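Internal QA ticket QA-208
Title: Verify multi-chain structure generation after dependency bump
Assignee: T.L.

Test input:
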Amino acid sequence: MSSRFHVATRKGLFTVARDSAAWSIERASFLGDNCTLSLHDPRDGALYAALNHGHFGVKLHRSRDAGATWEEIAAPVYPEKPADYTPTHTPAEGKPVDWALKLIWSLAAGGPDEPGVLWCGTLPGGLFRSDNHGDSWQLNRPLWDDPLREQWFGGGADQPGIHSICVDPRDSRRVLLGVSCGGVWITEDAGASWRLSGHGLRAEYMPPGQEFEPNFQDPHLVVQCRSRPDALWIQHHNGIFRSTDGSASWSEITGVAPSTFGFAVAVHPHDPETAWFVPAIKDEKRIPAAGRVVVNRTRDGGRSFETLSAGLPQEHAYDLVYRHALDVDSTGERLVFGSTTGSLWVSEDGGDHWTTVSNHLPPIHAVQFEKPA
Amino acid sequence: MATVRFTRNLQRHVACPSAEAPGATVRESLDHYFSIHPRVRGYVLDDQGALRHHMAIFVDGRQIRDPQRLTDPVTPAAEIDIIQSLSGG
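Actual output:
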C-alpha cells in the first residue's frame, strides 16, 4: 500500500505522505517554478521532475535522495531539422510543427529488465528514450519519421503530443502510446517499428466519414491494468472507451451520468473491470456538472457506474482534474486526485470516501503514488 | 572582445556569469560563451539554435534583427545583453 505521492503543480512539486494519523505535505521542491510532471521510478527510487520555465524552456531534474537534493539532467532535444525538409503529408493544421521541445507531457520507467531506461513523451509529438537514467535522450526516429506522425494535430494545445506511455509488464519491448491527437500507437520491438491501433475509437469532432479514423483520435489518457495488460481504458475527448484485447478493438461506453467527458482515468492494478473517472461538462465548458465534484467508478467493465461523492464538495465547486491528476496505488485501495483550483483529495477505500489534503495548493498538473517495483 | 551579460532572472536557474567572448557576430560570441558554460545554451536557445521565443538580445542597447540565426554583427567593444521579453503586467 502506498503511503507517499507526489503532486506536480504550477508553483512547485509537493510530496505528500501518510503518518499514523493523516496525510500531510512532507516536502516542497522547486517552489515558485512550474513543475508540469514528476516520475517516481519504482526500480531504483529515483525521482524526476519536469519544469517549464516559460522564457527559458523545459528542463528535467533528478533526485536520488527522495527529493532532498536535485540535479539538473539533460532535457530531450529535437535534432536539427534538415534544411530541405518538407512533410510528406500536409499537416491537419496546415503548417508543420517546430522541431523543438515544447512540453514534457509523459514520463515512464522502462521494465524491470532494463534498469535506467526511461521513456518521455513530448509536445510537439516526439517520443524520447534514455538508457542512462536521463543523463541523455534520443528521439525515437521510427515514430517521428512515420508519415502518419505528420498528420497529428493539437487537442487543446497548439501542437500534438504524447501523454500516455504504457510499458507492458510482460514484455518491456512492448510499449503503447496515447497521442492527442494521434490515437494509440504500439511497438513490440522497443521502438524499432510502430503501428497505429484503435479500431472502434470515435472522434465526434471530425467531419462525417472520418470519425473512426484511428490517427485522428484524441484519447485524453490511456491506462493499462498491471495484472491484465491487455485490459485498457481510455478517457477520450468524446467519451469513455474500453479494450480487452490490447487495443486491437475498442468499445465505447455511453449513457454514464453525469457525463462521459473528462481527462483522467485510473484502472485497478489487479481488476481490469474496475476503473475510476472524474467527469465534467463536455469540452466547451470543462467544469463539474452542477458544481459537484464526483468520481465515477465502474466495477463491472463499464456496464454500470457508481457516482462517488462522500467527502467531496457538492456545491459551487469548479475543480477540473487534468489527465495526469488522478492515480491509484498498487493495491487499488488508495486513490488521489488534484484539481486546477488546487484541491487535493485522497481515498483509502477505493473511492467510497474522500479526505481533503488541501484546498489551497497551486493548480495541480499531475499526481503519482510511489509504488513498489 | 564583446561582453556577454544575462538577466538576473536566469541566474536563479543556472550559473551564467558575465564574461568576455570573441566573435564577429552574436552567434560566434554566444557559441564561445556556451563552449565554456554549456548548460546555459538550452536556457537561451531552442533545440534548433534559434533564440527562445520569449527572450531578447540587445547589442549595445539595440535589439538584434536576426533572432533565428543570430547573424547580427558585434564589435570588439560591444556589450551583449540577454534578457527576457517583457510580457504580463
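Spot checks passed. The interface with chain B takes residues 53-57, 59, 72, 75, 77-81, 98-101 of chain A (CB under 8 Å).
Status: verified.
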